Amino acid sequence: MGRAGEEARPVPLLPAQELAGRQQGAGDDVPARYVARANDAEAAAAAAPVPVIDLGPLCQQPRGESAADEAARLRMALESWGLFLVTNHGIEAPLMDAVMEGSREFFRQPLEEKQMYTNMVDGEHFQLEGYGNDRVASEGQVLDWCDRLYLKVEPPDERNLALWPTRLRDALHEFTAKCTRLKDRLLPEMAKLLELDDDYFGDQFGAKADTYARFSYYPPCPRPELVFGLKPHSDGSFVTLLMVDSSIGGLQVLRDGVCYGVRTKPHTLLINLGDQMEIMSNGIFKSPVHRVVTNAEKERLSVALFYSVDPEREIQPAGKLVDENHPALYKKVKIKEYIAGLYEHFSQGKMVIETAKENILKLLGIGAWNCGGIDSDSYFEFRSADGSHYGPNDAIVVTSRGSLRRTGVDRFGWNALASAQQGRTRPN
Question: Whole-model pTM?
Answer without folding.
Answer: 0.82
